[in-house]
Amino acid sequence: MRIAVLLKEVPDTYSDRTMNLETGLTDRSGDVVADEVGERAVEAALRIAGSAGESQVDILSVGPETSVGSIRKGIAMGATEAYLVSDSKLVGADLTLTAEVLAALVKRNGYDLVVAGSSSSDGASGVIPAMVGELLDYPALTNLTDLRVEGTSVAATQASDGAVVELACELPAVAAVSDEFPDARFPNFKGLMAAKKKEINAVTLADLDVDPEDWTHARAIVVDIAERPARERGEIVDGNSQAASKLVDFLESKNLTAKEARS
Length: 263
Ligand SMILES: Cc1cc2nc3c(=O)[nH]c(=O)nc-3n(C[C@H](O)[C@H](O)[C@H](O)COP(=O)(O)OP(=O)(O)OC[C@H]3O[C@@H](n4cnc5c(N)ncnc54)[C@H](O)[C@@H]3O)c2cc1C
What we know:
Largest sheet: 9 strands, mixed
Structural class: alpha/beta
Keywords: Electron transport, Transport
Oligomer: single chain
Low-confidence stretches: none
Pfam families: ETF
Distance between the termini: 71 Å
Radius of gyration: 23 Å
Mean pLDDT: 92
Strand content: 15-25%
Bound molecules: flavin-adenine dinucleotide
Protein name: Electron transfer flavoprotein subunit beta/FixA family protein
GO cellular component, one term: cytosol
Domain Electron transfer flavoprotein alpha/beta-subunit N-terminal: 23-212
Order of helices and strands: EEEHEHEHEHEEEEHEHHH
Number of domains: 2
Shape: globular
CATH topology of the largest domain: Rossmann fold
Number of strands: 11
């Protein structure tokens, strides 16, 4: 079985994450790492490959050239090949373009199963797996807490509000794993050495025949970005005799009728 894992590099969640207000882009000048949910996706893919017999797990990523360090983590864990699509025309790529590029790479390489994270820790849109599925015409199983593959049949468990949903489909398919999936394994020495030497396959938009300036496709453009205003300090109401009436005044000022509360 050929399995692709969608893995992106993100600013480290332990550091201060900000947007660059000049460029409107994610500030990547601090520490960057492979996204944790993406690492869980690599782990899930390796486990499926391990029980499926002859299989290959490849890492696919869209991002700056500097992402190679994070992608190598997937190789160190046990993935075979890694492909990074990096192109100056992808700076500021929106969701649609990112999904188009990933889908084109999946199509070009040919995979039975695409495993992604449910939602990245930086953009957190939570839609790329479904968009990739739609573009490839593959069923997309999202927000999963469990994923099983037997032969060409996929069975998965999805966490939903107040319910546990069992899903099934046939390969090829896209599966998006949630944070409830097992932690990524620690790479062993052999894996670390292999990752160090491994050449990351560089892919361009021309290779994939994707045109970011094709405005017949849906594209969103950032037109402005501003720092979120700091939260105003709230008023502290002491528990004195005025407290109840102050609270009622506050509710009324917000149009939250409190006439009955006053009486
Ligand atoms: C108009 C516009 C402009 C933007 N400009 C920028 C920008 O300049 N810089 C920037 O960082 N972001 C930018 N973004 C956000 C950018 O589109 C998203 O970072 C990216 O498309 C993925 O979104 P996400 O991480 O929210 O995806 P999610 O749907 O939350 O990701 C879910 C999963 O999909 C996979 N995945 C998502 N993205 C990738 C990827 N790139 N490579 C491999 N796998 C992936 C991973 O498995 C991930 O866990 C822009 C968005 C818009 C709308």
